[in-house]
Amino acid sequence: MPAAYDLACSHGITVYDALFLAATVRCETCLVTGDGRLHERRRR
Protein backbone atom coordinates (compact mmCIF):
# COMPACT_ATOMS: atom_id res chain seq x y z
CA MET A 1 0.00 0.00 0.00
CA PRO A 2 2.78 2.54 0.72
CA ALA A 3 4.16 2.03 -2.80
CA ALA A 4 0.74 2.72 -4.30
CA TYR A 5 0.36 5.89 -2.23
CA ASP A 6 3.79 7.11 -3.33
CA LEU A 7 2.93 6.42 -6.98
CA ALA A 8 -0.41 8.20 -6.62
CA CYS A 9 1.27 11.29 -5.23
CA SER A 10 4.14 11.36 -7.71
CA HIS A 11 2.03 10.63 -10.81
CA GLY A 12 -1.09 12.60 -9.88
CA ILE A 13 -3.40 9.59 -10.03
CA THR A 14 -5.85 8.03 -7.60
CA VAL A 15 -4.67 5.46 -5.09
CA TYR A 16 -7.10 3.03 -6.75
CA ASP A 17 -5.30 3.42 -10.09
CA ALA A 18 -1.93 3.39 -8.37
CA LEU A 19 -2.69 -0.03 -6.86
CA PHE A 20 -2.80 -1.48 -10.37
CA LEU A 21 0.35 0.36 -11.32
CA ALA A 22 2.17 -0.82 -8.18
CA ALA A 23 1.14 -4.40 -8.93
CA THR A 24 2.63 -4.21 -12.41
CA VAL A 25 5.88 -2.81 -11.02
CA ARG A 26 6.06 -5.47 -8.31
CA CYS A 27 5.28 -8.31 -10.73
CA GLU A 28 7.63 -6.86 -13.37
CA THR A 29 4.97 -6.92 -16.07
CA CYS A 30 3.31 -4.38 -18.33
CA LEU A 31 0.15 -2.44 -17.62
CA VAL A 32 -2.68 -3.08 -20.04
CA THR A 33 -5.43 -0.49 -19.69
CA GLY A 34 -8.04 1.29 -21.70
CA ASP A 35 -7.69 4.31 -19.42
CA GLY A 36 -5.85 6.84 -21.55
CA ARG A 37 -5.25 9.20 -18.63
CA LEU A 38 -3.64 6.47 -16.52
CA HIS A 39 -1.53 5.35 -19.46
CA GLU A 40 -0.23 8.87 -20.09
CA ARG A 41 0.51 9.47 -16.40
CA ARG A 42 2.36 6.16 -16.25
CA ARG A 43 4.75 7.31 -18.94
CA ARG A 44 5.90 10.32 -16.88
Could you please describe the fold and organization of this structure?
The protein has 44 residues and is mainly α. Helix content is 66%, strand content 0%. It has one domain. It has three helices and no strands. The protein is globular. The model has no long low-confidence stretch (mean pLDDT 89).
Give me some keywords for this one.
44 residues, mainly alpha
Q: The biggest beta sheet, please? A: none
| CA-CA gap between termini | 21 Å
Strand content: under 5%
Percentage of residues in helical conformation: 55-70%
Tally of alpha and pi helices:
3
Low-confidence stretches: none
Structural class per helix/strand content? mainly alpha
Could you report the average pLDDT, rounded to the nearest whole number?
A: 89
Element-by-element helix/strand order = HHH
Total number of β-strand segments? 0
What is Rg? 9 Å
Shape: globular
**Total domain units:** 1
